[in-house]
Amino acid sequence: MKEVRIIPCLDVKDGRVVKGVNFVNLRDARDPVEAAEAYCREGADELVFLDIFATVENRKTRLEWVKKVAEKVTIPFAVGGGIGSTQDMKDLFALGVDKASINTSAVRNPQLISEAAKEFGKGKLVVAIDGKKNSPDSGLPRLEVVIRSGSESTGLDIVEWARRVEELGAGEILLTSKDADGTKEGYDLEMTKAVAEAVTIPVTASGGAGKLEHLYQAVTIGKAAAVLAASIFHFGEVSIPEAKQYLTERGIPVRLIKPGKEY
């Protein structure tokens, strides 16, 4: 097994990190620059920055917010929200962003995935997939892709879409369960496992982490290559070192860091 990555997520609205439940009822968490610096010191493997209202508000990513964080991070840094073209990605990469994450724009224009992969390489491209569960009598896929911050259904089966984005050139998938988001009741293991087993690229589990055991379950049951969390890190319930120690003690390989060196 490869080393499992631990990734804090900064959901940003009006220049502040926020966190809600099921993509709504947002509350203030912290300053994004302060958060980024803290997570780098703690040994996070990567950082994800999501301008969560960019698509809903029909605008591009707020580059001034990204720039402030990019100037401070010392770990790989992915940005999503409002990215609709390869030029948008270039603008982010020029600021020092390592990866661009596309979601709604990928569903509406799948060709953007292949264009970006060709221009920048798979390693620079994340396709984020938000999903929800439907009842058997809904006439919709049980595991369905949703877009525009979860406000719009697509009718797309999440496993079929995951396979397609891999074929088009995505380097990895960031998979978030809208139903589990912010609940702290655990990742959607059914959804995570279904996607992870359908593709060969890394899948990051997102949505629902509430305790250390959930991180372990996402890897062992959900087959995730990385785990992303927000609430438990932002509000000091779990630290990055605690998460890594917990996983290590249970046989999950992680990248362990002490200030100034790797060990």
Helix-strand sequence: EEEHEHEHEHHEEEHEHEHEHHEE
DSSP helix count?
10
Give the end-to-end Cα distance, rounded to a whole number of Å: 18 Å
Low-pLDDT residue spans: 259-263
Structural class of the secondary structure composition? alpha/beta
What labels would you give this structure?
single chain, 263 residues, alpha/beta, eight-stranded parallel beta barrel, two-stranded antiparallel sheet, 14 strands, globular, disordered C terminus
Give an overview of the whole structure:
Residues 259-263 have low confidence and may be disordered. The protein has helices spanning 32-42, 63-70, 86-94, 104-108, 111-120, 158-168, 189-198, 212-220, 231-234, 240-249; strands spanning 5-13, 16-21, 24-30, 47-51, 77-80, 99-102, 125-133, 143-147, 152-157, 172-177, 203-206, 226-229, 257-258, 261-262. Strand 10, helix 7 (189-198) and strand 11 (203-206) form a beta-alpha-beta unit. The protein contains ten helices and 14 strands. It is of the alpha/beta class and 263 residues long. It has an eight-stranded parallel barrel, surrounded by seven helices. A two-stranded antiparallel ribbon has the order 13-14. Helix 6 runs parallel beside helix 7.
What is the compact description of this entry?
The protein is an alpha/beta fold and 263 residues long. The protein has helices spanning 32-42, 63-70, 86-94, 104-108, 111-120, 158-168, 189-198, 212-220, 231-234, 240-249, and strands at 5-13, 16-21, 24-30, 47-51, 77-80, 99-102, 125-133, 143-147, 152-157, 172-177, 203-206, 226-229, 257-258, 261-262. Strands 1-4-5-6-7-10-11-12 form an eight-stranded parallel barrel, surrounded by seven helices. A two-stranded antiparallel ribbon has the order 13-14.
